[in-house]
Amino acid sequence: QLQLVESGGGLVQPGGSLRLSCTDSGKTLDHYAIGWFRQAPGKEREGVSCISNTHTSIKYADSVKGRFTISRDNTKNTIYLQMNNLKPEDTAVYYCAVTIIPDTLEAELYDYWGQGTQVIVSS
């Protein structure tokens, strides 16, 4: 069973940057598409970005296009979410998850989830 672990969250000022990481220490993620989701207090979970196992398919939510970049390094078994020009509305718990279905931000199609990392954007 996969055990995803996210890291890299924290407190950052508006306009700042963070890089989130998602990995599994025991099993390879090479065969899976990976998605990043977020959930702010009182709001529904939102799909942020996803990347296929072959790197060929990448999708972003409109709210993060041009600011966030997803990437993966299969040699390190790690998926990254580079977040630039952060805004207060990006404040949320960020989760990574895996699916065998590429190019989807439908949370119901993801099978395994990490426990999340908190991102707070505030001055």
Structure write-up:
- The chain is mainly beta and 123 residues long.
- The chain is built from no helices and 11 strands.
- Strands 2, 4, 5, 6, 9, 10 and 11 form a 7-stranded mixed beta sheet that branches.
Layout: helices, strands, pairs:
Layout: E1 4-7, E2 10-12, E3 18-24, E4 33-39, E5 46-51, E6 58-60, E7 68-73, E8 78-83, E9 92-99, E10 112-113, E11 117-121
Parallel strand pairs: 2-11
Antiparallel strand pairs: 1-3, 3-8, 4-5, 4-9, 5-6, 7-8, 9-10, 9-11
Pick out its properties.
7-stranded mixed sheet; 123 residues; 0% helix; mainly beta
Short description:
The chain has 123 residues and is mainly beta.
Taking the alpha carbons of the first and last residues, their distance comes to: 40 Å
Which structural class should the secondary elements be placed in? mainly beta
Spell the H/E element sequence. EEEEEEEEEEE
Query: What kind of sheet is the major sheet?
Result: 7 strands, mixed
Estimate the mean pLDDT confidence. Answer: 95
For this entry, what is the oligomeric state of its chains?
single chain
Number of helices: 0
**Helical residue percent band:** under 10%
Which of globular, elongated, flat, extended, rod-shaped describes the shape?
globular
Strand content: over 45%
Count every beta strand, where a strand is a DSSP E run of 2 or more residues. Answer: 11
Taking all Cα atoms into account, the compactness measure Rg is 13 Å
Residue windows where pLDDT falls under 50 for at least 5 positions: none
